[in-house]
Task: structure prediction
Amino acid sequence: MIKIAVLVSGRGSNLQAIIDSIENGYLKAQICVVVSDIGDAYALERARKHGINAVNIDPNVFGSKDSYEEEVLKVLKNHDVQLVLLAGYMKILGKTLLAAYKNRILNIHPALLPAFPGLHAQEQAFRYGVKVAGCTVHFVDEELDGGPIIVQKCVEVKDEDTAQTLAEKILEQEHKIYPEAVKLFVENRLRLEGRKVKIIR
Ligand code: GRF
Result:
């Protein structure tokens, strides 16, 4: 069974969606460890409630991004991790993790990339006045929110929506498409061809 690590920084609702998908049998995989750069991230508690190793690695005690990532890498290697999921992980990945897990790191972003990369994507989209918003699961590479796209889902923006209700609608779809994308990876049904990801049906 494929071994997964989830990197988090916050509330962990996407982590929860992955945990639930494993527990209900949709995903045949195992989360070996959850790593957070933030000590009091609720995501760590969610992991522990499900008997999953939950580790805080504080970047501030390391002299550089490289040495911090070396430490994260050590934990991942100790758990034989094969796939890394970013789920609300607020740090930009450096070359240490990117090189060690090339094409084996996925991220979920709350916008239809390449529109609205970066922080507060839902609010950016709302303010811009888009009629269709959504979320994206993609491979992670050097470019922020720029790696090859695996799955996207759109949601309609209604006149009565606020930034808050739009973010909620997007989040609901995130919890569906992240497990879907992970399932495709786990079943070895993704083929990377340059920027394109082909899905073997
Ligand atoms: C989600 O909106 C995700 O798309 C973004 O960060 C947020 C994390 O939320 N990358 P949660 O911690 O999974 O609840």
User: Anything to note?
Assistant: The longest strand covers residues 29-36. The domain at 1-102 is CATH 3.40.50.170 (Rossmann fold).
